[in-house]
Predict the structure.
Amino acid sequence: MPLIPDHILSAWNKYGNYTAILLIVSGLLLVFTHYLKLLITSDKKSRYDYINKSEINRLWFSFLLFAIGATLLLNTLFYPTNWLWFFVRLFLSSMMTIIISVVVQNMLKFYFPFYIEKRLKKLRYSPRISDNGNVMKLLSEEEEDVYLDEGMQAEENAYSVDYDVWIDEKTGVTKIEKYNGRLHALKCDKCNYQTLKVSKEEIIQTATLVAEGELIKYLTCGYCGQKSKKSHKIAKLNPKAISTD
Ligand SMILES: [Zn+2]
């Protein structure tokens, strides 16, 4: 086995090392800026949406940058004596990184959602403060309808959408927040992971003035692949809303 020409190895060590450090720093920055953004976002609903939309992807992407950087770093720190050692080291460390990545990916996909869900629930139901500094109250499903327009109510009835209405009881000021159930994972009955999501919604019977309609939600589990359907009633149309058209 011939020795590695010195200039190739030293170029590899030098530039590989720079790249490794760049990757590691970018990975760390990505996590850091994510949590910094959460820290400076004071509105709870915006924080909710941001966590829901990007946290898992962000963490996964920054882990990848970090892991690839660390593997590269390991392969540029020491001088191997010949090509055989060079490739053995490269191969073993890459395998190791792939195994660790699979473990991390599974944790992020299947265990992390439980933790996210807890934080989201806390964010969604912790009291809002109005501009006047008063603590607002969350209205119940029955109370909130007065504050939602027809379109919002129809959306709530028909799709995986939920509106929360917060009211400042002293001034009467309200704050309406929209929650999209499609983005949101439910617990799967079969595997118990928090990975069940609405994949499709279909109205099979539109609501009329005299009869309720019916909506079917198709759910698919991201872990075990379990598919299920759920039927939902759509409330009768409101005659008042129609006569004013
Ligand atoms: Zn499942």
